[in-house]
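Running this now, will post back.
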Amino acid sequence: MVRFAIRGPKYEQFMTRQIIYLMAIVILGFSLVACEPKKISEINADPGRYMNKEVAVIGQVT
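Update: finished.
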């Protein structure tokens, strides 16, 4: 990291902070994508997959 040493410690702190923020946004994005909604019919079709897991049901009954 010779490039950071030439530009100074404040630049290094700035870049470190930027990298941390970027990593946090990427991790948050992946966690939101991982929470894919399932239809009740999919849960009923394969109940063993959801055994001993917490399942929340959100929506309207029609």
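The chain has three helices and no strands. More later if anyone needs it.
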